[in-house]
Design a protein that fits this description.
The complex is a heterodimer of chains A (about 110) and B (about 110). Chain A is an all-beta fold. Chain A is built from no helices and 11 strands. Classes of the chains: A mainly beta (about 110), B mainly beta (about 110).
């Protein structure tokens, strides 16, 4: 157990739908990062939050949004889902930045049918 | 744009052999990290190297950071089936953590 909790572990949904992925960071970590991993794209950075505020954006689509709540858990919202959104979605956390490395959760496998 | 290139992308060897995985960039990084990822799980941090020329050992795994802090290598001695997995290098610089595409390693019994 890495200390980063992601739910659900698996999600199957239809095209056009909206889903919410949840992440609880490791105790004491203020930064949360979301990544998408597909077979042909590797780990793609989506977005970072630090202590409730958006800190950095990567290759996140406009159909995707995220937020970090006062208790530091984070949610990634994916809407108008397309087949190509099928992937593993990882949350990672760190105390502040990434100098010393991230702690990853076990991911949510999203399948869009 | 910071990019990290890993080589080889795929490596399949027999148990007991030695191997080296490379991670190269034209950018300088403040730190370089190696992760291992098993199927269905998230990447797990193995080591962070910070100083140019630094060498760290983790049992049969040896990690080296290049003198110019632009590249790194992972050497595994006497590989075992339990070493099978996806190995990712990641560089921290300009407030970003950049991942390589990974090396998928298979150790055959």
């Amino acid at each position: 157990d890495s200390g980063v909790t992601q739910t659900p572990k698996h999600l199957i949904t239809a095209t056009g739908q909206r889903v919410t992925l949840r992440c609880s960071p490791r105790s004491g970590d203020l930064s949360v990062y979301w990544y998408q991993q597909s077979l042909d794209q590797g780990l793609q950075f989506l977005i970072q939050y630090y202590n409730g505020e958006e800190r950095a954006k990567g290759n996140i689509l406009e159909r995707f949004s995220a937020q970090q709540f006062p208790d530091l858990h984070s949610e990634l919202n994916l809407s108008s889902l397309e087949l190509g959104d099928s992937a593993l979605y990882f949350c990672a956390s760190s105390v502040s930045g990434g100098f010393g490395g991230y702690t990853f959760g076990s991911g949510t496998r999203l399948t869009v049918v | 744009t910071q990019l990290l290139e890993q080589s080889p992308q795929f490596l399949s060897i027999q148990e007991g052999e030695n191997l080296t995985v490379y991670c190269n960039s034209s950018s300088v990084f403040s730190s370089l990290q190696w992760y291992r990822q098993e199927p269905g799980e998230g990447p797990v941090l193995l080591v962070t190297v910070v100083t140019g020329g630094e060498v760290k050992k983790l049992k049969r795994l040896t990690f080296q950071f290049g003198d110019a802090r632009k590249d790194s290598s992972l050497h595994i001695t006497a590989a075992q089936p339990g070493d099978t997995g996806l190995y990712l290098c990641a560089g921290w610089g300009a407030q970003k953590l950049v991942f390589g595409q990974g090396t998928r390693l298979t150790i055959n019994p």
